[in-house]
């Protein structure tokens, strides 16, 4: 597992790949038909329709938008597609790591609230690669049918740090995969990926925890580091 100074086996060499034209990706129609497309619009929709804030729909949807907003600070561009026919994913999008300039296509599953994130969810995310919509399908080796050079990565997100079982499962996976811990306040507390993802261009990128003091006491969140330099938030 690479990043957060939690590397299993050091850095991996980067293999150059053709650039993906992320702007041409077609997202599932359900995303365009949704009555909300951000945390702010969802909260407004929930208030208008009387959606119970304690319901699983409210908690899950709110967390998905929180995750999308939190990861956007690191350069992730994510669209919520969760719901009926969601191909087993909650968010789809892209991330262009500063180490490559090439867009990774992302399949993201979010597990908010009290949901336990175990190795079984890593296997579930592996299945999402095959059932993903066109443009986000992978074969574990970077091939994507008509998008033969597509570089697809799966990301599992939970409110608690990855357990040893999750880290081990990610490390064994043949798919480019990672894990992020995003707390209830929308702070990214952990971000890591396996060596398959490192081989896809993330091998020169590190993740470290930065701590600061404010009105709420000590705060911490992860930052991306390249060649010893902290990368600014987007």
From TrEMBL:
Disordered, as annotated region: 1-24
Biased composition (Basic and acidic residues): 1-18
Predominant localisation class: mitochondrion
Pfam families: RRG7
Cell compartments where the protein resides: Mitochondrion
One GO cellular component term noted in the UniProt record for this chain: mitochondrion
Domain of life, per lineage: Eukaryota
Keyword list, A-Z: Mitochondrion
Entry protein name: Restriction endonuclease type IV Mrr domain-containing protein
Source organism: Geosmithia morbida
């Amino acid at each position: 597992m690479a990043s957060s100074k939690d590397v299993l086996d050091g850095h991996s060499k980067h293999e150059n790949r053709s650039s993906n034209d992320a702007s041409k990706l077609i997202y599932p129609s359900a995303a365009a038909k949704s009555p909300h497309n951000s945390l702010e619009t969802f909260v407004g929709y929930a208030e208008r329709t009387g959606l119970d804030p304690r319901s699983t729909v409210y908690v899950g949807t709110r967390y998905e938008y929180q995750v999308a907003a939190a990861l956007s600070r690191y350069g992730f561009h994510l669209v919520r597609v969760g719901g009926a026919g969601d191909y087993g994913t909650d968010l789809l999008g892209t991330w262009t790591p500063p180490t490559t300039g090439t867009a990774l296509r992302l399949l993201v599953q979010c597990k908010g609230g009290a949901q336990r994130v175990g190795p079984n969810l890593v296997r579930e995310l592996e299945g999402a690669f095959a059932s993903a919509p066109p443009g986000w399908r992978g074969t574990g080796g970077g091939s994507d049918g008509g998008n033969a050079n597509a570089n697809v990565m799966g990301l599992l997100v939970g409110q608690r740090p990855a357990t040893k079982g999750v880290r081990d499962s990610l490390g064994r996976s043949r798919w480019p995969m990672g894990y992020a811990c995003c707390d209830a306040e929308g702070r990214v507390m952990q971000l890591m990926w396996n060596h398959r993802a490192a081989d896809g261009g993330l091998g020169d990128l590190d993740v470290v925890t930065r701590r600061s003091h404010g009105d709420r006491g000590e705060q911490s969140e992860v930052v991306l580091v390249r060649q010893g330099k902290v990368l600014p938030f987007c």
